[in-house]
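Retro notes, item 3 of 5
We never archived the inputs for the uridine-diphosphate-N-acetylglucosamine complex last cycle. Fixing that now. Sequence and ligand:
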Amino acid sequence: MASYLVTGAAGFIGSHLVRALVARGETVRAFDNFETGRRVNLEDVLDRIDLREEDLRDAAAVRAACEGVDYVFHEGALPSVPRSVKEPRPSHETNIDGTFNVLDGARTAGVKRVVYAASSSAYGNQPGFPRVETMTPQPISPYAVQKLTGELYLQSFWKVYGFETVCLRYFNIFGPSQDPESQYSGVMARFALQMLRGEQPTIFGDGEQGRDFTYIDNVVSANMLAMEAPAADVAGRVFNIACGERHTLNETYHALAGLLKYPLPPLYGPTRDGDVRDSLADITAAKTQLGYKPLVDFSEGLRRTVDWYRENFAS
Ligand code: UD1
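Structure as it came back at the time:
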């Protein structure tokens, strides 16, 4: 058994990782400032984790949280493309300075490896699908730049210090316990809640933009594999984590509406600033180097997600 630090532990992805580690009997330290993370996400494991309510921008707190830890999953971030467009400084500080603090703290404390939540937004709107890790990133939004900067820092720490780091570029993750109530929530969570409440969701743009929507269990599995793989195969590298399928927003809307028996069509509004038009991953590198494969496909993921929102938000 080993000791793990999960940053962003009360967030959607972080809390799923915490639960998976606890279920395996690992020692888990959970780090979150609860700005976007939610206490309810950790409720069932609170008595089995060391919870630190601290901020990633606080270098000393991050450093202290890394003490005695073998491995770090760095999921903490201030997410959302539109949030970063509207107000770039807070996400800049959390996503860039915070990531540096994690790397510096982890290296100083003798941590063995950091696995990082990178973002598919790094690819931007360049031509060429599917997206392969060898493409030159062309980030558009501040959020995309911040997440890419984090990747570069992780790669630098491997190159100059031999400190083991792995970047996982997530492609639009969805599933149970993703916060549906913020204007910056992921689209799947937002639409599910709006449909359950009888509110009419708005699609930004024509709805023909595509996303490689990826169910949360696939991401948890990718993280475990990235932490366990031999350094020779993964250290200093970047991997797309997705399903390798493109689904349009219109298609996704109708699939959700069908499952929730929601009768109304979407409203349409202007395209969001900083939005990427299309997203589709090549997952060959993750398959060959990590042994990754999608465990839950889009349709099954949608069913599980809808069931969860129905149970938790129906009233
Ligand atoms: C982006 C990144 C993703 C990252 C996430 C973090 C890309 C391709 N993906 O996701 O890797 O993890 O940021 O926040 O850049 N939409 C609507 N109506 C709504 C809400 C959203 O139409 O009410 C649309 C958006 O305009 C967008 C799509 O749905 O076209 C997905 O939006 P969202 O779920 O916010 O994720 P991305 O910004 O694509």
